[in-house]
């Protein structure tokens, strides 16, 4: 079983290395990532102090897989007494007075926070270019985008700075960047991981995301942080969260694929996708075509934009600079608020706020927002029918390899339906995971995306684990 967490845990328990050494190594690697702008705020001194303390009590924690393991948090996760900016200049000096629930759970499991990772401002962007703290460059080639908005988190995992990182996922923000870095990105069933203390983008779509190199690492982390949380009113209870303990390969599998999706893929990706399905058939997995109306597929982007922008504008109405955040001087309260938002918010955020305000105006509310919600429900119903008909639905995780940064900055990259389709699992709150596709070309930065019904997270992880082993050409050890 491939797992960086298990590898480090074994080395710690056997005395082959120390927690202090592991943390120091991670810190050294982090410092090298300045060239990719993957970090915003470091936690080095606290991490080194904690490593020394944990080293003294290893004998009491031989079964605690996250004990002494380094990780990073996306910078929209609140950390008490440690700056949390959400990638925005508006919050450049914001230090939360409380911890997010997931951070508390990691502390309880004795994992060690190394740093807060860079991101598109407030999660609003899919490329890593919309941060006040620099453009995040793909660790594999600095000329290419890493994707977003969990840009820094996937970069740090891709270069094995840390064995896992936390992101967030509103449309595909953990899973599509994972595709562009040959990492694994997982979004659980809506509400399984508490969002308390994670700054929102669009609450009806937001999920905590986990990024790692291997499915086993995802399962280990999920087992630690999938907990019911009374502080999150969307939190869900599950009967069994032993995702790693129950991780196993499956023998028989019916895989659903959306008919005609190939036409939305660039030639190299279409070839890889076709090859992927061919190999699965040869392995005697059943490939079952499923239908989603084309007019529904092309509506995904618009529906996502209307709903998420409206929710974002509502969530961040508190960005005034009066109670918290950076304040610009003005002649009165209204002037201060206007100047603060004008000077401290990025163009992408302003654009989304303006659209969000427009679609929720009294005269537009029914025409745009309510209509978008109704179409969302149509999409969810159709998507759930697809999921019921098969064991998993396999999607291309992107229409292309990572786009050039120059193309993104100059608005020369044209997305397709294949770049929007991962939003379906956010609409429905169903679990979804992207794993690398590396059967024939280890340098092909592209992955496949797998989906199951709500609360079938164990099933999804087992399927992903099976296909990860299959595509990598390695036997389960």
Task: Provide a concise account of the structure shown.
This protein has 477 residues and is of the alpha/beta class. It contains 16 helices and eleven strands. Helix 4 (101-108) links the parallel strand 2 and strand 3.
Explain what the structure shows.
With 477 residues, this protein is α/β, with parallel strands linked by helices. It is 38% helix and 12% strand. The chain contains 16 helices and eleven strands. It has helices at 4-14, 19-32, 44-55, 101-108, 151-158, 175-179, 215-225, 267-282, 294-297, 300-315, 333-344, 347-359, 365-388, 405-409, 423-428, 457-472; strands at 39-42, 70-74, 112-117, 164-169, 184-187, 207-212, 254-258, 286-290, 392-396, 432-436, 447-451. It has an eleven-stranded mixed beta sheet with strand order 1-3-2-4-6-5-10-11-9-7-8, sandwiched between helices. Strand 2 (70-74), helix 4 (101-108) and strand 3 (112-117) form a beta-alpha-beta unit. Helix 2 runs antiparallel to helix 3, helix 7 (215-225) runs antiparallel to helix 16 (457-472) and helix 10 (300-315) crosses helix 13. The longest helix has 24 residues, at 365-388. The chain is globular. The model has no long low-confidence stretch (mean pLDDT 95).
């Amino acid at each position: 079983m491939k797992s960086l967490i298990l590898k480090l845990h074994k080395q710690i328990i056997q005395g082959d290395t120390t927690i202090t050494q592991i943390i120091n190594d991670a810190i050294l690697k982090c410092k090298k990532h300045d060239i990719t702008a993957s970090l915003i705020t470091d936690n080095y001194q606290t991490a080194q102090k904690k490593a020394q303390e944990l080293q003294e009590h290893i004998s009491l924690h031989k079964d605690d897989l996250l004990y002494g393991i380094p990780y990073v948090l996306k910078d929209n996760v609140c950390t008490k007494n440690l700056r949390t900016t959400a990638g925005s200049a508006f919050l450049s000096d914001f230090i939360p007075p409380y911890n997010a629930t997931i951070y508390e759970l990691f502390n309880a499991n004795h994992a060690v926070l190394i740093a807060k990772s860079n991101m598109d401002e407030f999660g609003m962007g899919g490329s890593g270019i919309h941060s006040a703290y620099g453009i995040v460059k793909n660790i594999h080639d600095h000329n290419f985008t890493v994707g977003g908005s969990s840009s820094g988190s996937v970069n740090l995992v891709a270069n094995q700075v840390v064995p896992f990182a936390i992101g967030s996922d509103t449309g595909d923000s953990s899973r599509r960047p994972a595709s562009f870095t040959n990492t694994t990105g997982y979004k659980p069933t809506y509400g399984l991981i508490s969002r308390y203390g994670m700054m929102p983008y669009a609450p009806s779509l937001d999920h905590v995301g986990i990024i790692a190199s291997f499915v086993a690492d995802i399962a280990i982390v999920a087992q630690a942080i999938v907990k019911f949380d009374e502080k999150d009113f969307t939190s869900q209870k599950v009967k069994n969260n032993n995702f790693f303990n129950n991780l196993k390969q499956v023998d028989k599998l019916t895989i659903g694929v959306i008919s005609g999706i190939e036409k939305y893929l660039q030639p190299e990706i279409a070839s890889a996708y076709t090859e992927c399905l061919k190999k699965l058939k040869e392995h005697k997995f059943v490939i079952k075509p499923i239908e989603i109306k084309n007019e529904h597929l092309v509506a995904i982007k618009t529906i996502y934009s209307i709903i998420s922008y409206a929710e974002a504008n509502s969530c961040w109405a508190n960005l005034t600079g009066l109670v918290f955040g950076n304040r610009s001087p003005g002649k009165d309260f209204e002037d201060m608020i206007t100047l603060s938002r004008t000077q401290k918010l990025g163009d992408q955020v302003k654009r989304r706020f303006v659209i969000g305000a427009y679609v929720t105006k009294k005269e537009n509310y029914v025409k745009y927002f309510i209509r978008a919600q109704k179409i969302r429900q149509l999409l969810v119903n159709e998507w759930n029918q697809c999921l019921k008909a098969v064991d998993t639905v396999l999607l291309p995780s992107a229409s292309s390899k990572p786009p050039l940064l120059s193309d993104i900055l100059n608005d020369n990259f044209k997305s397709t339906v294949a770049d929007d389709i991962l939003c379906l699992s956010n609409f429905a709150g169903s679990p979804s995971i992207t794993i690398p596709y590396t059967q024939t070309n280890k340098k092909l930065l592209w992955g496949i995306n797998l989906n199951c019904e709500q609360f079938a997270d164990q099933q999804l992880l087992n399927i992903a684990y099976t296909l990860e082993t299959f595509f990598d050409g390695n036997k389960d050890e």
